Amino acid sequence: MKGLKTIAVIFTAALAMTALQSCDNDNEYIYTGAYPNAMVTVKKTADGGVYLQLDDKTTLLPVNMKKSPYYLDEVRAFASIRFTDDDSNGYTKAAYVQYLDSVLTKFTAPDLGTGNDEAYGNDPIDIVRDWTTVVEDGFITLRIRAPWGNSSKAHYINMLRNTNGENPYEVELRHDARGDIYGPSRDAVVAFNLKDLPDTGGKTVKLKVKWKSPAGTKTHEFDYRSRGTQPEE
User: Fold this and answer.
1) Which of 54, 88, 106, 192 has the greatest count of CB atoms below 10 A from its CB?
2) d(CA 221, CA 146)
3) What is the pLDDT of residues 124-155, one digit of tens each?
4) Whole-angstrom Cα distance, residue 155 to residue 180?
5) What pTM was computed for the model?
6) Per-residue pLDDT at 227
C-alpha cells in the first residue's frame, strides 16, 4: 500500500479486475474472476490474527487468512467474499476471501485556519455517489474524481477536522493536485479514520462533508455513529 500522504489512481475498470496475490503462505487467495462485492475494514487482532469488519455490526472470520497482509492495524479494502458454514469463532460469520485490494487509509488532519491552502491545497475535486462512498465502522470511505492528466503523479488528499467551531461533526475534504489540474478526470478511492472526532455517545449524528468542486462549494451529510464495541480477540 502507498504511503499515508500519497494517493494512487484507482481506475474504475481496473478495480474489478485486479486481485491481491498472497506474498506468503499465511493467506490463500484464489482469484476466480470475482468482482468486489463488499467494502471492509481489515483488522489485526491482539495475537497477530486478522478479521474483517463488514459494517457497523457485522464481523467476519476470514477462513483462508491467518494474518493481515497490511502493515497498518486497520485498512479499508475492497473484497469479494462468500459466506461459509465454518465455525465463526466468536465473530458474526465465517467467510472465504476471494479478492482483497486495499485503498488508501488515512487519519483526519487538523484545521490550520489561514494556513490550510498552503498545507493541504485547494484544488477542485468531486465526491462520486456510488456504493464505495459510505460511512461505517468509524471510517468515511469516498470515491473521488478530479482532473488527473498525469496518472503517475501523486495527488494529496486530506480530510480536515474542527473546521466549524459550532459543529464538531463538520469536516472538509482538501485536494492538492501539485499542478496536475488539466487532462481527463479520473477516479480514486480514499478512506479516513474518524476516531479523532468527538464520540457520539451511541447516537447517530449528521456528519457534514464540505468540499470545493469544479462547480463551486458543495456539502453532503452522512449518518455517523462512533464505533461501538468490537468482539473480543
Assistant:
1) 192
2) 21
3) 999 999 999 999 999 999 999 999 888 788 89
4) 8
5) 0.84
6) 86
Question: 6-10, 30-34, 64-68: which range is least confident on average?
Answer: 6-10
Question: How many CA within 13 A on the CB side of residue 82?
Answer: 7
State the DSSP string of 90-155. TSSEEEEEEEEEE-EEEE-EE--GGGHHHHH-----EEE-STT-EEETTEEEEEEEEE-S-TTS-B
Q: Which residue has the cell 476471494?
A: 98
DSSP string over 185-228: EEEEEEEEE-TTSPP-TT--EEEEEEEEETTEEEEEEEEE----
Do the first three CATH levels of 12-102 and 105-224 match, i.e. the same topology?
no
Under CATH, what is the fold of the domain 105-224? Immunoglobulin-like (2.60.40)
| Measured torsion, CA atoms of residues 190, 191, 197, 200, in degrees rounded to the nearest 10 | 130
Q: Which helix (H) or strand (E) segment is 166 a member of?
A: none
Residue 7, beta-bridge partner list: 155
Residue 153: predicted pLDDT: 83
Annotation: CATH topology of 12-102: OB fold (Dihydrolipoamide Acetyltransferase, E2P) (2.40.50)
